């Protein structure tokens, strides 16, 4: 049996669980199909950028908030979206952090920011289609589901 190797692009991203009084801060972004997607503040890390630095930078752009004292919560890692044009090896890191400042997003893709009670977070998640849309892959939301239930694990293999 021959082994065919292939090289997948690596996608590294960092997101932050910002919490106040049983609520989680979510950003509202408009997808290509016009629908609203709710996600954690954060996003893609630049080449050579640490997950923590990416988290601080992305949260500032998406929310206007300054985050400090990041605490690592979990890493989601593995092959994602296999067989689609967006297939990649994903490494998604999640943190909690202290925060200060005013909500003022400067990212043009962010159309709103919302404090959502923990018990309502899962009801905002929309899965599929299209299948190549990473944000709608249920695996991406498993760490967040566990976090709001108080059962976060450190490592989530895809």
Automatic annotation (TrEMBL):
<keyword id="KW-0378">Hydrolase</keyword>
<dbReference type="InterPro" id="IPR000086">
    <property type="entry name" value="NUDIX_hydrolase_dom"/>
</dbReference>
<protein>
    <recommendedName>
        <fullName>Nudix hydrolase domain-containing protein</fullName>
    </recommendedName>
</protein>
<feature type="domain" description="Nudix hydrolase">
    <location>
        <begin position="9"/>
        <end position="138"/>
    </location>
</feature>
<dbReference type="InterPro" id="IPR015797">
    <property type="entry name" value="NUDIX_hydrolase-like_dom_sf"/>
</dbReference>
<dbReference type="Pfam" id="PF00293">
    <property type="entry name" value="NUDIX"/>
</dbReference>
């Amino acid at each position: 049996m021959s082994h065919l190797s292939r090289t997948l692009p690596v996608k590294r991203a960092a997101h932050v669980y910002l919490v106040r009084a049983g609520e989680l801060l979510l950003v509202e972004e408009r997808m290509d199909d016009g629908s609203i997607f709710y996600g954690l503040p954060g996003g893609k890390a630049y080449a050579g950028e640490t997950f923590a630095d990416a988290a601080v930078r992305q949260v500032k752009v998406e929310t206007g908030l300054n985050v400090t004292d990041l605490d690592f919560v979990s890493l989601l890692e593995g092959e994602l979206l296999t067989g689609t044009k967006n297939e990649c090896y994903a490494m998604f890191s999640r943190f909690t952090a202290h925060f200060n400042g005013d909500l003022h997003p400067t990212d043009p893709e962010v159309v709103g920011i919302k404090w959502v009670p923990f018990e309502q977070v899962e009801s905002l998640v929309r899965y599929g289609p299209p299948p190549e849309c990473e944000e709608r892959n249920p695996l991406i939301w498993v760490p967040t589901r566990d976090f709001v239930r108080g059962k976060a694990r450190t490592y989530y293999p895809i």
